[in-house]
Input
Amino acid sequence: MHVDLTARSAAEYDLLRSGQMTPSMAAEYLREGRIIPRGFAEVLRELYPLPDLQIRLQEAFLASCPEANPESTARKLRNWLSGQSTPASREDIFQIAFALELSEAGASTLLGLCTGYGVHYRDGREVVYAWFLRNGRSYLEARSFFETLPPVPRPEDIPPNLHTHVTQELQADFQRVHSLPDLRACYLANLEQLGALHVRAHSYFEKYLNLLIRPSSSWGEEREPDYSIEAVMDQYLSLHIPSGRSRRNYSVVQKLIKHNWPNATLLKNIRLHREDVPRKLLLLLYVITENGLDDGYSELDEEYLTIQDRLEDHWWSLNAILSDCGMPLLDPRNAADWLVLYAVTAVDEPMSQRMEQVIELMFSDVTEKDPAP
Output
């Protein structure tokens, strides 16, 4: 069973298509919380609408960890199902998928919602779990089988020239497997290609970041020196997001916008392949660079295009990139996604400037009450 959770939410998307919202109106729209975020509990109940949801989850979690405290487990599950918290562990999300006998696509939907990435077909554990889900086997069987396999390479051991489409190729290889001996053989044959980081997302990140680090020069002028990561962060990516850590004056939507906003340390760690590329960062880089990866002719440069035309074009371009990276597609009920979609409708100003105006207005009351130290 698969529920399409990336379909456009009519009210939120139609408001963007109207072209009638000023940055102050967009900031007010977000600040007043008119967008109701699509939460984990809502999505889970759409994927599994039967009344025994909590019972099945509790039985499964206790079976996989007999020493766990039943009261603590029940409380954790209640918090997830009431929307008070969200599973942060991809292992927990796979366990939920097995417990409810969800499809591989359903598991990928939950993973994407909670972590920004669907099933990762270059991660050794996840490709095994996906095979067991696809074949109707249990979580305990999958875990036991994986424990018999050799570990995947460390990030520093992955070849630097690894083909960026290797994930799709590996996925296809494992989908052709029909038995446990063949699964083991396929895993061992592809061991050197496995790894925890998403190669395709890193490829997009490097290309976008290089556009910001290496400023272009006008004809006949000497090229400017490369920017440092700190300069890139300050000049392009800060966008008036408050730097203080306190959240006590924030609304739910303000917290969602600010959550996991990138910083210079994150950018450095990604460049060193110590961390993965967050979905929010990839969307921000698209906006800030005006999707500058395409140097050729773009119909978006034409003046005859309407706001609706521009939004449609960016909608498909952004979703193509997200899909290529194994990330969830755009959801107008996601406040950060909605802000990105509002920014790409800019006509007479840079997309990043439009986004920055909304963020500055949206957080003005918070920064006045709680200034950064």
About this structure: The first helix runs from residue 10 to 18. Residues 199-369 form one domain. Confidence is low (pLDDT under 50) at residues 1-5.
